[in-house]
Amino acid sequence: PRPIYLSRHGESEYNVAHRIGGDSPLSPQGRRFAQNLGRYVEGEVGEGEIRIWTSTLRRTIETARPLGRGTVEWRALDEIDAGDCDGMTYDEIRAAMPKEFEARSGDKFDYRYPRGESYRDVIRRLEPVIVELERERSPVLIIAHQAILRALYAYLMDKPPRDCPHLSVPLHTLVKLTPQTYGVMEERFELGP
Ligand code: F6P
């Protein structure tokens, strides 16, 4: 049974500054993770086939680069759109828009950022990705973002969608999901620098 690999992009400049969204490049640590991921996938796959899907944001594209293989860029894999809050820190949101901050804490699944998205919106736009993922016969490595991978992980592991905003999908950790006769085997590899 072919595995599905999930990874967040390497640490970005915005991750370092605690800013959400944006389209910043990788930090030096993030670039090191990308190298480690490249070596790891080389060891796992060797001459074999693997599809590599990224978002259209530079932090995922830069993370895929050391793999030295073809990639497919999906807009549907771009991070949750934080709308008017894009580029802010959580502290800045709490100070400038306390009502919004509170509303999101109260219902993170259905909360929609002003002129942005909710987790529920994200799950809806991931549908074509999931259709293609089910159709694909080769292993697939998806390099994407925290909210996106929470949603995909919940789907693949059969977790209730409502739980997905709270699932742990840390940076610099490759998640390998291998379908079994009953359920899915999960392995996590910390490839951090
Ligand atoms: O902080 C990194 C990040 O990918 C942001 O770009 C995004 O808004 C956030 O994580 C999503 O996580 P949460 O839903 O917990 O805010």
From TrEMBL:
Substrate binds at R8, H9, G10, E11, S12, E13, Y14, N15, R59. Coiled coil: none annotated. Transmembrane segments: none annotated. This is Phosphoglycerate mutase family protein. It comes from Sandaracinus amylolyticus. The chain holds residues 251 to 443 of 452 of the full protein.
